Amino acid sequence: MSTSESDASASQRIDASVQAELNRLRESIDNIDAAVVHMLAERFKATQQVGRLKADHQLPPADPARETRQITRLRQLAQSANLDPAFAEKLLNFIIAEVIRHHERIAEEAGNGSAGGNGSATAAEA
Fold it and tell me: Residue 111: pLDDT band by 50, 70, 90 thresholds?
């Protein structure tokens, strides 16, 4: 039995009111996911600008002090929002790594040699 067949079979056994509530909640989740993707896109547009500014002024792609401040801040925000701070930190570190990768690429393209950096990820722009 395929996953869709199994899902269809399960939905036939679910009370209509429960299915309606499940659908409503899933629609809300889908909307939130779309908003998260759009917010990340906006965030990366801003970090690309930071990367270009850093490359233009031969600044390193990473800023460990900023990273530490951002992680502390995000953990506090997560805790106040009843989100696991460790999860929030992992998410931020994932984003930071991508930002640094972008900054290193921008620096390489600018040819200023600062792309080698120390390779550490930072929340300076993340």
Answer: confident
d(CA 119, CA 61): 8
Report CA-CA distances (Å) from 4 to 10, 11, 33, 34, 118.
Answer: 10, 10, 22, 23, 48
Residue 57 CB neighbours (<10 A): 9
Beta carbons within 8 Å of 103's beta carbon, 6+ residues apart:
47, 50, 51, 54, 55, 61, 62, 125
pTM of the model: 0.72
Output b/e per residue, 83-107; b: 16+ Cβ within 10 A.
eebeebbeebeebbeebbebbbebb
Provide the residue type at 84 as one letter.
Answer: D
